[in-house]
Amino acid sequence: MEFLRREYPDFGHGDFRTSSYEIVSSKAHTLSGIKYEKYECFKGRDRVFGMPHVRIGSEEEAETLIIHLYDSFLQIRMKIFYLLLEDYSAIVRKVSFENISNEPVKASKLMSFSIDLPSASYDLMFLKGAWSRERHVERVPLHKGIQSIGSTKGSSSHTFNPFVALLDKKTTEHQGEVYGFSLIYSGNFLALAEVDNFDITRVMMGIHTQGFSWVLKEGEVFYTPEALLVYNNEGLNGLSQEYHKIIERHIILEKYRNDVRPVLINNWEATYFNFDEDTMLTIASEARNLGFDLFVLDDGWFGKRNDDKTSLSEWTPNYDKLPNGISGLSKKVVDLGIQFGLWFEPEMVSEDTRLYNENPDFVLGHFNYPKSHGRNQFVLDFSNEAVVNEIFERMKRILNDSSVSYVKWDMNRSITEAYSQSLSKEHQGEFYHRYILGVYKLYEMLTNAFPHILFESCAGGGGRFDLGLLYYAPQTWTSDDTDAWERVKIQYGTSMIYPIKSMGSHVSAVPNHQVGRNTSLKMRHDTAIFGTYGYELDITTMSDEEKIEVRNNIEFFKTYQNLIHHGKFYRLLSPFDGEAASYMVISECQSKALVYYSHGLQVPNAPLSNLKLRGLDPAKKYRIHGAKSSHHGDELMNLGVLFTESYFEKDFIDNFLKPGDFKSLILEITEIK
Predict the structure, then answer these.
(1) Does 410 qualify as catalytic in the annotation?
(2) How far apart are CA 358 and CA 161, in angstroms?
(3) Which of 367-371, 375-379, 420-424 has the lowest mean pLDDT?
(4) Cis link prior to 474 (omega < 30° from 0)?
(5) Which position among 298, 299, 381, 480 bears the catalytic label?
(6) Tens of pLDDT along 167-191?
(7) pLDDT value at position 607?
(8) Options 10, 298, 299, 410, the catalytic residue
């Protein structure tokens, strides 16, 4: 067995590599003898409840294969699900376990899939990071033994994203084979690649085994999270394009596929906790004049919230700041001609609140051990249905009474003391999974009750940027770090899997509040338009010249918004390989393109720079705005764009060519008919 390639391997029968499941029973402890029973095949997909999954619009879009297996001694049924998407080189995998015996069994490992590939000649790629530098690209050679990434923080985390890829060693951005593996899940996860001494590579993903166990009583079924497996032979960028299409069509809600996302202004870096109603109305009024669509009131509007030490879970307005409450403020903002949005952190509680003191069993932790503060707050027990329902009722009261069209859902700390007072001792290993199911349930309740509200997920920035939350919230706050050059790296890495339209991206104040760097308003704008686009600074203190620039920037984004959000995306230069970065989008008909190019630190006496474009029609002729002459697509893709005064009009590129750090350029490209 140790020499065979296996589909969903167990342990104990001669395969000494990593197993994909482990079930503990009183009859045979960890031994099982699951055997093939039958298969079924049908158009469409199986029904799914309670967890995010790949959506299909009609039965013609997919076909399902289910392999049925059965252990007649333990009386456990297993099903391995394969969902084949009609238009994509992708397979969706998951597994179910059903206990049909008259005694409980406990599962300590239930992975979503396992696959054995007949080669070890791969590189492993994943997305790593930390708060404020999420999803940086890492590529390392596979070696004998096990390499793994994962999260035990209660969320998919800033540290690693629930995605890995295996690349042929010669694979580049635009050529070569690559296999992508993603988990449609927002909680603790594990992804590993194991190479044995016969050069077989085993890849598996699923719920992290640390602290996990699940008791299956008679008749109960457990479904693993779904995993999305994608293949492409046109390099990393080809894999990304395949992911983007699948996510836009089969993960994100249908109503958001072709919508126009609002350009927003968020008050956070403008005021932090120090504001009142007049301040908010002044910002909202100025925002309306500059062309914004949405004003968002961030943290500090509730309870006694004048800093980050108080009032979480008390979703009632701070009437000292807002005498007319959220209801009155939101209606005044809407009367100005601009939409209103609101910040929540539903999963957290502060120690000085009634909820904390009157319902101690609602808070995570064991009564015999101290609870760890994280960002001056504690975590509510979302594995407890009563907690989820209580928070829903509190949020519903505010949203019912106000004119809210956007909600930013934040989550600012990891889970510690993972003990639920609502679960018995033998069920504590179920906590992490039940917690994230509670998060999904609250999302489901809110999105059903308020279908007109656009939700943006957030977890201390990009700490829960995953396919699970994109199922409910079609955009995610990409990172709390809004510095333009750092965002180039973060958004570049994020684009490996996630479409541009899902990335929350803002123009913020300088010096930047996270890294202290000064970058031009132009570079901040150029970087932010390759996302959802918004602002997070005090526009009321800007000069008249800056306000004109902001108004023009918003008009520019709205002109190209459809192209940016629905065009084909190409990465051209990686900021992880040097001091320059570039990417572009092009329309399906190859008639319009928008190219982003920037550099970090200035290189002295730099060599001639040329940028080779992608995706153009070789035979078509194109005009680059600001260039002195037109060029055919094959010339722009093979020779490239030259950043010289002989290539561009002097006024267009003069500032970009002057010595200086952190500069950017947007190229507008149009087909000449």
Answers:
(1) yes
(2) 37
(3) 367-371
(4) no
(5) 480
(6) 999 999 999 999 999 999 999 999 9
(7) 83
(8) 410
